[in-house]
Amino acid sequence: MKQTRIFLMMILVCLVAKLSAQSPISKSVMDNGKTIYLSRCLACHQVDGGGVPRLNAPLDGASAVIAADKAKLIRIVLKGYSDRVEIDGEYYSNNMAGHADLKDQQIADVLTYIRNSWSNKASAVTAAEVKAIRAKLK
Ligand code: HEC
Hints:
Mean pLDDT: 92
Bound molecules: heme C
Strand content: under 5%
CATH topology: Cytochrome Bc1 Complex, Chain D, domain 2
Largest sheet: none
CATH class: Mainly Alpha
Structural class: mainly alpha
Number of strands: 0
Distance between the termini: 49 Å
CATH superfamily: Cytochrome c-like domain
């Protein structure tokens, strides 16, 4: 009985260790995300993710882009963004339309791409996470 418990504890420790280790992001996800970025985001956010001063928010180094909580990011891509709120100390006057026509996997990949491009480094976004937010917005 005691041995079983120790064995189960060891499995649990291994699982937690595996979950907390940042799994590497595959090249195919990054390639797919880049393709979407180039066709749907580049015009405003620019090839270097720097945006356009006072017009389009930068994505490189943006605190919201690399935030642990991905819900806001997913909502921005689905619903668009024209709140004119202060973003990292600046205001941007352009309007970002929603991209709800993109599939869950496409939104996940483009967000994983912007979270891991330029100087950004953050965990991947999954299609399941996008699906959950999309369901809440309906
Ligand atoms: C028409 C121009 C335009 C396009 C195209 C566009 N955006 Fe945006 N984006 C903006 C603007 C403008 C803002 C800031 C909005 C505000 O201040 O209310 C913004 C904000 C954002 C933010 C929030 C940044 C922060 O720091 O809070 C993210 C994330 C983002 N865009 C991602 C994307 C992605 C991903 C795509 C492509 C699927 C995309 N955008 C396409 C103009 C655009």
